[in-house]
Specification:
With 634 residues, this protein is mostly helical. The chain is built from 26 helices and no strands.
Length: 634
């Protein structure tokens, strides 16, 4: 990327020329078109009243529709008329996307892309607009939950770039980068396959599509004769932005979108490589706002944290901090909040990996370790337990050190929460509160005293429990589910700790608090499970999206487990608890059989074992209850 580059005008064959008129009336039509696009720009930059948030977008749409309707009368050449019509459709698609009319936006994006990418002439002249269409359509597909469809679109952008920029230094450099990224992508895929084989597969996994970089090439009769006029049309849509700058910014955006998409598809290494390229391009071209550059740098630091490369992440965070100013005075409030959040994740990652290492040491040591390992639980395990030797210095192994790291994390999260307040930033605020909860959870793992540990865990519920009543579960269903599931997990852990104290005969033990934690855990797991079912339907869920199905099933499994461990004082209470647990285990197995669910093999096997154990136990306890009701034999 640092090599000398030819101007994009040379790459695409655009040379200085005198404007010539190839068709009578074209100049007038383009002047009217330019006026219409200026009106659209002015309208969409206005601040609309709260009661009519899309007021000016609708007015801009009317302007575009009127301009589109007059194209045929003003432009006699059918090729140029088609060019202008489809480019106006691109602006209309963006308009529909902004007003959240996604189906209409999708239809227009699809037809526009087919037209612009149909042959080499259109791809060359309209390349910046083609990249813009691909980027916006990609955003729509991701919103629809179709990252693979978005990735296919972005491959078109990459293939177009390779075609129109062939033989130039920037294209040659990018080709080398792609070769390196392909190696990273292959490594990602092999690692994913290894993990899936070890874990027994996932739910709803699909085969990756084959790369298809062949570009369409529909012959367009007469298109070569109107190249000069076609360039004049393109210039009108570029507006006041220089052609080279427009193309650079839209191409860089496409690379940025692909970084996000492949990240969602589990290709973290390739995502990071693409994002690093975007940062270099933005820095070189000087076109990115500081806010965007800082955001992307923080995002890249997050990738290195996921690989336990703390030094690299710290270096990137320091660069972002320097770019934004020590006090964040050079960037906006949101970028400052995300920078605080990125630093908080650095300290959280150190704790998370340290806890995983702590769990390994206890497992190796046995004895007390078996109890501690059970208490740590799977929630503490990080995606990658391997830590490079040079990164060991970032880990902690004592409560005092862990408390110091957590204190830094907590102060940064509090600073971010001042930016992302619940009124206006519900999603971000809830996620930050969950990070606060997770910090307390990780700190609790270092506390040996069970009573103190219980108090630390209780802090987790204090952080997030108020939000269950505060946020609207219909408007924010995903956030509400997350909170209920996490609260169920918190009270389940508190119940485990208290039950352990009871079994060890600790003095001043409270049966009331044990019952409270058990009841709360069941309450929140039930809220979580029921949130997947419409309120008016009192029956099990029949179908769920693959990405949330395992989440839902684990909630049902935890509920079945909890019901069978209820604190009881009479045989009748024990019978009712066993019956409830048995029914839940059987329902869960039936659900998995009906829907051919192959994931969660260990849990399903455990369900079968529990059913086999609980049936005879229920019979035995039921007989004892019957004997008590009849009374002793005379």
């Amino acid at each position: 990327v640092g090599a000398a580059r030819e101007p994009f005008s040379a790459i695409f064959g655009w040379k200085d020329r005198e404007d010539t008129m190839a068709e009578e009336g074209l100049d007038g039509a383009l002047a009217d078109l330019s006026t219409a696009l200026s009106q659209v720009k002015e309208l969409t930059e206005k601040v609309a009243p709260e009661e009519e948030p899309y007021k000016y977008w609708y007015e801009a749409r009317d302007v575009l529709e009127k301009a589109k309707g007059g194209v045929g009368a003003k432009v006699k050449n059918s090729i140029l008329a088609s060019d202008i019509t489809f480019l106006l459709d691109l602006r209309l698609a963006t308009n529909y996307l902004e007003t959240e009319e996604n189906p209409s936006a999708g239809e227009l994006f699809s037809s526009t892309l087919r037209y612009l990418s149909a042959n080499a002439s259109r791809r060359s002249v309209f390349a910046p607009l083609l990249f813009e269409a691909i980027g916006q359509y990609c955003v729509l597909e991701v919103t629809r939950g179709k990252p693979k469809a978005a990735n296919k679109l972005l491959r078109l952008a990459f293939a177009t770039f390779a075609e129109v920029a062939a033989g130039t230094p920037i294209a040659d450099e990018f080709k080398k980068r792609v070769a390196a990224w392909t190696v990273e992508e292959k490594r990602d895929r092999e690692e994913k396959e290894r993990k899936e084989k070890k874990e027994g597969g996932g739910i709803g996994d699909e085969e990756e599509e084959e790369e298809d970089s062949d570009l369409p090439d529909v012959e367009g009769d007469g298109e070569d004769e109107v190249v000069e006029e076609r360039r004049k049309v393109a210039d009108v849509f570029f507006g006041s932005v220089a052609r080279d700058t427009y193309l650079r910014s839209q191409w860089t955006l496409c690379v940025f979108y692909r970084a996000q998409v492949v990240g969602q598809m589990g290709k973290e290494a390739m995502s990071a490589a693409l994002l690093a390229y975007v940062l270099e391009r933005q820095k070189e071209d000087g076109v990115a706002r500081k806010d965007e550059w800082v955001d992307n740098t923080v995002r890249l630091a997050g990738f290195y944290l996921g690989c336990n490369r703390f030094s690299k992440a710290l270096s990137l965070l320091n660069i972002a901090k320097e770019e934004g100013g020590n006090e964040g005075q050079h960037i906006g409030a949101e970028a400052k909040g995300r920078l605080y959040w990125g630093w908080a994740k650095f300290y959280r990652a150190r704790l998370a990996v340290s806890v995983e290492r702590l769990g390994e040491e206890y497992r190796m040591g046995g004895g007390e370790g078996s109890s501690r390992t059970r208490n740590l639980g799977s929630a503490y395990v990080t995606p990658s337990a391997f830590v490079p030797p040079q990164e060991e210095k970032w880990l902690v192994n004592s409560y005092i050190d862990a408390a110091g790291v957590f204190s830094q994390q907590l102060s940064l999260l509090m600073a971010a929460l001042k930016v992302f307040v619940v009124d206006g930033y519900v999603t971000e605020n809830v996620a930050l509160q969950q990070d606060v909860s997770e910090g307390w959870r990780l700190l609790a793992a270092f506390e040996v005293d069970e009573r103190k540990r219980c108090r630390i865990i209780r802090r987790r519920s204090f952080a997030i429990e108020p939000f269950v009543k505060l946020i609207n579960k219909d408007k924010f269903p995903s956030e509400w589910k997350q909170l209920c599931n996490e609260l169920g997990s918190i009270y389940n852990e508190l119940f485990d700790v208290k039950l352990g104290l009871k079994q060890r005969g600790v003095k001043n033990y409270s049966i009331e608090r044990l019952r409270e934690f058990h009841s709360k855990a069941i309450e929140y797991y039930r809220l979580f499970i029921d949130s997947f079912v419409p309120a008016e339907v009192d029956k099990p869920v029949e179908s769920l999206d693959a990405d949330v199905l395992e989440w839902y099933l684990r909630g049902r499994f935890q509920l079945a487990r909890l019901e069978g461990r209820a604190p009881v004082s009479t045989p009748h209470e024990e019978r009712d608890a066993i019956a409830a647990s048995l029914q839940l285990y059987e329902d869960l197995l039936q659900y998995c059989d009906v829907h051919n669910i192959e994931a969660m093999r260990e849990e399903r096997e455990l369900c079968k074992e529990m059913v086999a154990l609980l049936r005879p136990k229920l019979d035995m306890v039921s007989k004892r209850c019957a004997q008590e009701e009849v009374g002793p034999p005379q």
